[in-house]
Amino acid sequence: MADDLLAATLAGWREIEQAATPGPWESDVIEELGDRPVVLLPVPGNDDAADLLFQADAPQATEADAAFIAAARTAMPLLLSALDEVLKLHARQDKPVRDYGAEGACPNHRVTALGRMNFKSLHDCPDCQYTEHYVCSHCNCPNDEWHCPTVRAITAELTKGEAGDASHR
Fold it and tell me: What's this model's pTM, rounded to 2 decimal places?
């Protein structure tokens, strides 16, 4: 469920980002418009020209709001790409890890006084009890279930909003 919600959240953000007017955008306050904060799309090849994308009409809108919107146009694709790389790095390992626990191995395969064991024979032994679980292919946390702490933290933060509410995507 969390995987689906995270995937839907990221897909929604990508859809919005890709449908938006290409950047970079700039912000300014234009005196001729009553000192309102605006977001501008610079005209390529003409440093003195820009198309007006947004004009803030709300009285509480600030220049910082316009700067944030303009910066988000450049930052959002970079953040999504960085997040993709982190999630790829912390992907679920293809093969499950077997955990034999304290009593899982049969008497023939328990650790010897020298601490040695034939793991191949242990793996194939029908008398040894084990559980299987998936772990992160990057983290060194073999006792931790998939999702690793990194993916759990990302998922928790990015899926705080309701699944169907586009304002949280």
Answer: 0.71
